[in-house]
Known about the structure:
Structural class: alpha/beta
Distance between the termini: 30 Å
Strand order of the largest sheet: 3-2-1-4-5-6-7
CATH architecture of the largest domain: 3-Layer(aba) Sandwich
Largest sheet: 7 strands, parallel
Low-confidence stretches: none
Number of strands: 7
Radius of gyration: 18 Å
CATH class of the largest domain: Alpha Beta
Number of domains: 2
CATH topology of the largest domain: Rossmann fold
Strand content: 5-15%
Order of helices and strands: EHEHEHEHEHEHHHE
Helix content: 40-55%
Amino acid sequence: MDLGLQGRLFIVSGATSGFGLAITNALLAEGAKVIAVARNKEKLLELQALTGRSVEILSADITKSQSIDMLEKLVGRKQPDGILVNASGPPAKCFLETTMDDWDQAYNQLLRWKVELTRRFIPRFQNRGYGRFLFIESSAVKQPIENLVLSTSLRMSVTGFVKCVSQENVDQGITFNILAPGYHDTPAIDRIIQKKSVTGSISFDEAKKLIIQGIPMKKLGNTDDFSTLALWLLSPRSEYVTGQVFVIDGGLVKSI
């Protein structure tokens, strides 16, 4: 199926690891161009060396306002077709382990920058009458995950924000959707496994095995498979879908 991504330009944050890297590679395989944003400059340069002129890079912490300034400057007069809004999450903690500083940092890490990035780029998409915003959050917005009170709370705020802004722009040719992954084979899952290992006084491998046993499909998700839905939601083919949360979790969430 031709998704109509050939020659289109996408901004991808968190582009050198996990979901961001898988989606970057999938976009490039479809003939799209990517502005890849990540903190690790060496990994960005490696990505660019492998992909050539199809990738522009920005080494920056996208959760900072000055980084969004840098991104706008890099984009210049170019016309992005969509943005993958993606970054790492806060530490794994239960509520009584958290401090108010943890909550302030989680707000900045999970919500504030996404609001600012969206505010900055919506006018570009409105002027053009087309655009795709795709946020990667967590299945915790549907069913809480133990020791992720910071992530669960603030990501639920993101879902409320995305739903509202999608309705406010529903006739502008712009869509806003959320992918909510469960346990996938990415570096991000290590903090969850490590926390379970510590709290349960078991080894890292034993903790990982327990997590996998709790997934109905009895396996971790694959990022390449995950990226196929992301491609469709970033493409023109998904024009009738907005304000939705798609859970990809191997059957873990029990709600209807």
